[in-house]
Amino acid sequence: xxxxxxxxxxxxxxxxxxxxxxxxxxxxxxxxxxxxxxxxxxxxxxxxxxxxxxxxxxxxxxxxxxxxxxxxxxxxxxxxxxxxxxxxxxxxxxxxxxxxxxxxxxxxxxxxxxxxxxxxxxxxxxxxxxxxxxxxxxxxxxxxxxxxxxxxxxxxxxxxxxxxxxxxxxxxxxxxxxxxxxxxxxxxxxxxxxxxxxxxxxxxxxxxxxxxxxxxxxxxxxxxxxxxxxxxxxxxxxxxxxxxxxxxxxxxxxxxxxxxxxxxxxxxxxxxxxxxxxxxxxxxxxxxxxxxxxxxxxxxxxxxxxxxxxxxxxxxxxxxxxxxxxxxxxxxxxxxxxxxxxxxxxxxxxxxxxxxxxxxxxxxxxxxxxxxxxxxxxxxxxxxxxxxxxxxxxxxxxxxxxxxxxxxxxxxxxxxxxxxxxxxxxxxxxxxxxxxxxxxxxxxxxxxxxxxxxxxxxxxxxxxxxxxxxxxxxxxxxxxxxxxxxxxxxxxxxxxxxxxxxxxxxxxxxxxxxxxxxxxxxxxxxxxxxxxxxxxxxxxxxxxxxxxxxxxxxxxxxxxxxxxxxxxxxxxxxxxxxxxxxxxxxxxxxxxxxxxxxxxxxxxxxxxxxxxxxxxxxxxxxxxxxxxxxxxxxxxxxxxxxxxxxxxxxxxxxxxxxxxxxxxxxxxxxxxxxxxxxxxxxxxxxxxxxxxxxxxxxxxxxxxxxxxxxxxxxxxxxxxxxxxxxxxxxxxxxxxxxxxxxxxxxxxxxxxxxxxxxxxx
Length: 761
Ligand code: C2E
Ligand code: MG
Ligand code: MG
Description:
There is one protein chain. This protein is α+β, with helices and mostly antiparallel strands. It has four domains: 80-186, PAS domain (Beta-Lactamase); 205-313, PAS domain (Beta-Lactamase, 2-Layer Sandwich), CATH 3.30.450; 323-485, Alpha-Beta Plaits, CATH 3.30.70.270; 514-544 and 556-623 and 672-759, EAL domain (TIM Barrel), CATH 3.20.20. It contains 27 helices and 28 strands. A hairpin with a 5-residue loop joins strand 19 (510-519) and strand 20. Helix 11 packs antiparallel against helix 12, helix 12 crosses helix 13 and helix 19 (599-610) packs parallel to helix 21 (630-643). Bound molecules: ligand C2E and magnesium ion (2 copies). Residues 529, 588, 620, 650 line the site of one magnesium ion.
C-alpha cells in the first residue's frame, strides 16, 4: 500500500506538468477549456473511485488482521487455560519446538517459545517416544500419543501426555512436520501410582481388609479376606457385615462394636466370625472410620488377622503349664495352687487338708520291660482309677513319672485320709488290663501328710507326704503311712545312701562275691554267680536288695553295672589263667543296661581288656525286663549271643512266666526263683513242686538249661535231682564269697564228699 499510495501524485505531476498554470480557466468555464474540464472531472472521479476501492480494501485487510490477532489471542487463551503446551517437531532436523503461554506484561498473555535440540525427554522414555513417533510417521497410527517424562526447570522430571499428528508433507508425501499439544500430568501420574500401590498393598496384605459403608455394608474386600472367610468379593459386596457374625457372641456384642465405631470412629478387639461353610475363626480386628475421597461419605476400614491358631497354641500352652498331657490330670504347678487354696479355706473353716502321695510299686520295671507305650497305658488307667476312687471335688494330680497325689479337703480327722488310702489300695487289687491278652496287678504305696497337723505350707505338705510314701515302700509296699517327724531320719538316710553310693565306685567300696553252681548230672562246679557287695565307710554293709534299687532309681546303675562286668571278667580271666576251666561266670544285668546302653559293646570291651573267653560268660536278666519290649530285647540279646555269651533268665516264675513268649528270645538258661524252691521236699509243697517240675520239663523241651536258686537243704536237692534239674545254686553248696575264697573252693571241690555223692548215679 505504501509505495502505491506514494507513487500516484508523482505520476500525475509528471504527466500534467505543461498545463499546471491553466487549471483555473478550466475550472471557471472557458469554452475551449470545456473538454479539459470534462477530462479533468473524469480523472478526478476515477481517482476518487480508486481511492474508495483502496480504502475498502484497506478496511477489509485491517478487519482480517484484527480477526487474526483475535484468533491468535483466543488460541493463546485456550492454550493457557488448558495448561497445555503447543509443540512442533521438524522431522528433517529432528528439532523440537515448544510454545508455552505465560502471563506477560500488563496482564497480557505471551508466548514463550523454546527450541530444544537436546529433547529434554527422560532417557528411559525416549526409545518408546521415538517408536510411537515412527509408527505415526509411517502412517501406522492416526495420531501420535505418548506419555513420558520431561525435564523441568528445577532439574526434576515431570510427566507429560503429548498428542499430535502430521501437519506438513513434502512433494513425495513424506511427513516433514508433526505438531500437537502436551500436558503436564505429573499430578495424575502420582495419584495413579499411589492408587496402584495402595491397591497392590491391599491385595498382598496377610490381614483381611474390609471396607464397610456407613450402614456397615461391604464396599470392598481384599484377597486375604477371601482366603480367611471363604467368601469371594462378589459374594459379599453390598451385603450387611453381619453376614459373618458367629453365634459365639450374642447379638449385643456386634451391636456394641458398631455403636463404638459409629460414635468414636474406632473399634478394636477380638471377634469370632463364621465362614461360608459354617466353620468359625477368631480375628483380631482394628477398625477406623474414614471419609470417602470425593463424596465425603463415611466408610469403615477393618483390618483383621486370623488368630484362631495362635489362641489355640496359647490355650495349649496354658494347659500344658497346668496339666499333664498323658493323663489329663493337674500337674505339679496346678497342684501347688490347689494346695494353697485348700489351705486358705481350711484355715477359715477350721478343717483339715490331707495330701496323699501315691507311688506305684515297681513301675520302673514295667516301663523298662513292657516299653513306654504300655507304661503310658498303665498310667492312664491308674489316673482313671484314682479319679474314680477319690471322687468328685478332690484334686487328683500327676506330679512325676509314676507319682500321683490326691488332695482331700474338709477333713475333721486325719483318720479320714487313712480310709481313703485304704480304699485306693483295695481298688488296685483288681488287675489293670494292658490289652486284650495281658492283665497285670500294680500296687500303690501311699504317704499321707495332713494340714495343719504335719505341715503349714504346700511345699512341706508335698515333701512330708513323699517322705511318708517312702516309709510305706520300706514297710513292704502296697500300704500307706501317715507322716510323722521321726520319718525325716529315714528319708535323710535314703538321700545320704544315694550320695554315698555315688562315691562308692571311686572309693573302691564295691566288691564282687562269687557263689558256685553245681551240676546235678556229674557233680562238677559249672559256674559261679557274681554278686555285688557294698561296704560303705559311713553305713557299713548294705545288702544289694537295698542299694541296687537305689542305684537303679538314681541313675547310677549303668556305671556300677559296667564296673561289675569288668570286675567279673577280670576274675574269670584270672581263674582261667590259674587253670580253672569249665566254670562260667554269671553276671546280673539291670534293665537300664540292656535297654538304654550299648550292652554288647560293654561286654566285648570287658572281655577283650582282660582276655577272658566269651563262652564262659553268662548274663542274668530278669523275666520282667525281657517280657514285653520283646523286639528291642530280642535285638540286644541276639547281638550278645553273637558274641558267644549265654543268657539266663533270673528269678523265673516271679513275673509273667510265659514260656511261649520266652521261646522267641535267644536265651540259654532258666533260673527258677528261690521262692519256688523254699518249700520243695516238704509236706504241702504241692503247688511249688508242680510248678518246678513243669518248668524243668518245659525248659528242657525248649532246649534250655535249668538252674535252681536258693537251694539250702538236702530235701530240696533231692527233689531237684529227681526231677532232672540241671544245676543248683544255694547255701547247700556254698554262700557267696570273695574271689580268693571262691578259687580255693573250686580247687578243693574235687575232694568234697558232696561232689562224690552227686557224681554217684
Ligand atoms: P539274684 O540275682 O537272684 O541273686 C541271688 C540272691 O540269692 C543273692 O542275693 C544270693 O546271695 C541269694 N542266695 C543264694 N543262695 C541262697 C540261699 O540258699 N538262701 C538264701 N536265703 N539266699 C540265697 P544277694 O547277693 O543279696 O543279691 C540280691 C539280688 O541283688 C540279686 O538277686 C540280684 O538281683 C541283685 N544283684 C546282686 N548283684 C548284682 C549286680 O551285680 N548287678 C545287678 N544288677 N543286680 C545285682
Ligand atoms: Mg542273679
Ligand atoms: Mg535270682
